[in-house]
Amino acid sequence: MPYQQVNIDDQPVIIGDIMPIQIANPKVIEKIDRLSRLMGLGKTATVEAAVDRMLAEIATESQSDPWAGIVAIIAQLHRIPPRPDAFEAVEYDDAGLPG
Questions:
Q1: Cα 7 to Cα 14: distance, rounded to the nearest angstrom
Q2: Nearest residue to 7 via CA among 15, 18, 38
Q3: Can you give the C-alpha Rg of the chain in angstroms?
Q4: 3-state secondary structure of 67
Q5: How far apart are CA 48 and CA 21, in angstroms?
Q6: 82, pLDDT greater than 70
């Protein structure tokens, strides 16, 4: 069994191979608090619902477009600015042909 549920002070606590998450970023904590209030759920349930929704979106996107991951990587590569110290090994003319 990868985990086990026990009761501590009449509260269920899961122990085992599950690592608790600590969020140290105040902006993320504020977002979780705000979403929790809007949804009327506890923080854990809110995070679970948000993660479930994101996982479902990713699954839907990956099923609809098998190239989506490659396209995303290429888009990230195109956002890398050129290096100021780079040089062209081959000179090109105005038509883009090697000179």
A1: 9
A2: 15
A3: 24
A4: coil
A5: 12
A6: yes
Residue with tokens 């995303």: 72
- DSSP category for residue 91: -
- How far, CA to CA in Å, does 60 sit from each of 6, 69, 85? 36, 13, 42
Contacts of residue 61, Cβ cutoff 8 Å, sequence gap at least 6: 68
The SS3 of residue 86 is coil
Q: What kind and span of H or E run contains 72?
A: helix 68-78
pLDDT, mean over the chain = 82
92: helix, strand or coil: strand
pLDDT at 1 over 60: no
Mean pLDDT of 70-94: 84
Give yes or no for a contact between 60 and 53, defined as CB atoms under 8 angstroms apart. Answer: no
